Amino acid sequence: MIISKILLELFFSFLGTLSFAILFDVPKKYYLTCGTIGATGWIIYYIIDTYTGQNILATFVSSLILICLSREAAYSKKAPVTVFLICGIFCLVPGVGLYNFTYEFFVSNTSNLSKSMIYVVKVAIAISLGISVGYELPAVFFGGYRAQKKKRGGLSSE
Known about the structure:
Blueprint (H helix, E strand, L loop, with lengths): L1 H22 L7 H22 L2 H23 L3 H9 L5 H12 L3 H27 L6 H10 L6
Helix pairs in contact: 1-2, 1-4, 2-3, 2-4, 3-4, 3-6, 3-7, 5-6
């Protein structure tokens, strides 16, 4: 039962990310990579959130892994990181939280408004921190970068 739920989550997160890649006008040759990166990020989020109940931690860890996967794909496919990152992060954006915040704002329900706002801000900070930490990792951590340098003769085989 749990395995089927995870596989279903994996399939629909892949499909959602792929759909966003199509809307974002990503070149067709990157569709599979974008979908895989997005599905991986969502599954990591889903597993951490399900088994720990820490959705902010799950968001941080999955966005950190998403940026690492996006950087690896960018080096190996020779494409901008944003092509993979923006599509991959799509599943983590707190759409329901933003909707609830907007709804509570317009109906003037201040107690629920503040709860929704705090949640959305926490998730946004977790996403941005995960991306920031991932961007600060040196490029030599990524195999695609090392392969490019090796082809050009930039890395010695020590």
